[in-house]
Amino acid sequence: MTTATTLSARIQDAHTRTLALIAGLDEVQLMGPRLPIVNPLRWEIGHAAYFYEFWVLRHHGGEAPLRPDLDQLYDSMTIAHDTRWDLPLPSLADTLAYLRTVHERVCARLADGTDDPRRDYLAQYALDHEDMHTEAFTYTRQTLAYPAPAIGTAAPGVAPADRPSGDAAIPGGAFLLGAAPADGFCFDNEQWAHPVEVSPFRIARTAVSNAEYAAFVDHGGYRRPALWDPEGWQWRTAAALEQPVYWRRAGSGWEQRRFDQWEALPPFAAAIHVSWYEARAYCRWAGRRLPTELEWEVAAAGAPAQGGRGLARSKRRYPWGDAAPDPTRANLDGAALGTRDVAALSAGDSAFGCRQLIGNCWEWTDTLFGPYPGFSPDMYQDYSQPLFGNTRVLRGGCWATRGRLILASAGPARFRPSSSTTLADPGSSTPSPGRRSITRPAPRSPSSRPGPPRSPPAWVPAACWWSRAAAVS
Q1: Domain ends where: 112, 143, 174?
Q2: Is 39 inside a domain boundary?
Q3: Contact 342, 356 (CB under 8 A)
C-alpha cells in the first residue's frame, strides 16, 4: 500500500512534470487547433486539478469549490470535447495558481496524521489521472509539432549486447487474467482476475522495428487493398496515407518527425504512431496476426510450470519479476524522449524471453476493449464504460508513461483511457502504439473474437502504438 507521505511526494512530482510539459509554449500553442484527438492544454491543466479538487477536497473532504464556475469549466463528463475551446477559461497564470492550490491542499490533507484509506484511494486515483494527462500533454506536443519538452534526453544509439530474434514459445494452460485485490490500486477495467484457458502459441520476442515496418511500406503495403480490413482501407484512403503519419521520404530512405524536428529514421527503434488498421495490414503482409489480450498478458506475466510443461499457477507482477521498473528494465517516464532499440533492456525480459513488454511503446492487441466478468464501475463511471465495445485493448505502457502507473497496476498495464480522448480507436495512432504479432494460424476464444470497429475517422490521428506478432503451433 502506498503511504500518504509517498503519495504527497508523487503529487508534487506530477506538478513538476506538468509544468515542464507546458514550459516554452505561448498562449496560442496552449490552446492549439480544435482536433478530435487532443484537448486545449490550458483546459487540460485545469481539468487535472479539478479531478483532485472534486474527489479529494469536495466529495471526500466536504470543502466548498475554490471557484463557483469549476463544474461548468472542467467536468469532462458534462462538457463535450469540441466545446472546450470555446469556454471562458481562466488565464494561464490563474490556471496554474488553481493547480498549485489544489495540490497544496491535497498534500496538507495527506499530512494531517490521520489514517484515512478512502482519502488515500481518491488521492491515488487523482494522481494516476494527472499522470495519464501528462502523457497526453507529451503526445499533444508531438501531434502539434511543438518543440520537445525538457523531460529527458534522446536515447543514445548504443548497440545492445544481444539481439533476440524469432518467436518465444508459450505453453497453454490455465491463467488468471486481470488484477487481484491483493495487487493494490487498480482501475475498474482491470478488475478482477478470472480464470481463462489459453492454447499454446508463439509470439515475437521483440516489438516491430522501424526497419521491419519500412520493408512493408517499401513493398507497397499502403497501396494493396487486399492487406487491409475494409474499414481500414476506407480509413487509409480518407487519411491519404502512404506511410506512417510522421514519416517522409529522404532520398532512398526515411525520416521521422520527432516533435518539431525531422531526423533520420532509427532502423532498430520500435516503430510507433501506427494505428490498429495499419498494424493489422502489416501483420497480414508478414503472414502473422496481432496477439489477443490474453496471449499478450500470458507472455508478459506468465511463467512456465515446473518442468516446462504448461503454465505456472502464479503470475509475475512485472515481466521480469517483482522488482519495480527501473531504467535498466523499461523505457518509461519520458527519460529517452522516444522509443529505444527493440533489443535494448534485456534485464526486463519476461520468463519466456520477450523483451520490452513494459514501456517503450503501447502494444496493440486484437481484442475489443470490454469489461471483465463481474465488472463494477468506479465512482468515476465514465472512466471505462463509454469505451467498451468501441476500442481495442492496448497493453504495456510507452516511453512517456510514468513508471508509477505501472507500479499501481496489477502487472503489465491494461490500456487506461484518460478523459482527454479515445486513444485506442482503431484508426488512432496518437500515444505510442506499436505491435508484436503472432503467426497464423491462431486460435481465438469467443471472448477475444474481434468485433466491428468504429466508423473510421476522416482526420489523421497522431498516436504512437505498435505491437508484436505471435505464432501458434
Answers
A1: 143
A2: yes
A3: yes
Residue with cell 475494409: 230
Length of the chain: 473
For residues 58 and 205, membership in a common domain is answered with: no
Q: What is the pLDDT of residues 202-245, one digit of tens each?
A: 999 999 999 999 999 999 999 999 999 999 999 999 999 999 99
pLDDT tier for residue 432 given thresholds of 50, 70 and 90: low
DSSP β-ladder status, 465-471 and 433-439: parallel
Task: Report yes or no: 241 and 427 within 8 Å, Cβ to Cβ.
Answer: no
Distance CA 184, CA 409 (A): 7
Assess if residue 149 is contained within a domain: no
Range of the domain at 34: 4-143
How does residue 148 score in pLDDT terms, banded at 50, 70 and 90?
very high
Amino acid at the residue 91: S
Burial class (CB in 10 A: 0-12, 13-18, 19+), 240: exposed
User: For residue 297, which phi and psi values (nearest 5 degrees)?
Assistant: -70, -35
CATH classification of the domain holding 72: 1.20.120.450
In a shared domain, residues 169 and 121: no
Q: Report residue 167 as a C-alpha cell.
A: 518467436
45-81: pLDDT as tens digits: 999 999 999 999 999 999 999 999 999 999 999 999 9
Which residues, 6 or more positions from 28, have their beta carbon under 8 angstroms from its beta carbon?
Answer: none
For the whole model, what pTM was predicted?
0.90
Is-contact 175 302, C-beta < 8 A?
A: yes
pLDDT digits (tens, 9 = 90+) for 355-384: 999 999 999 999 999 999 999 998 888 888
CA distances from 445 to 214, 277, 367, 440, 454 (A): 32, 21, 10, 15, 22
Query: Domain for residue 148, yes or no?
Result: no
Number of neighbouring beta carbons within 10 Å of residue 398: 30
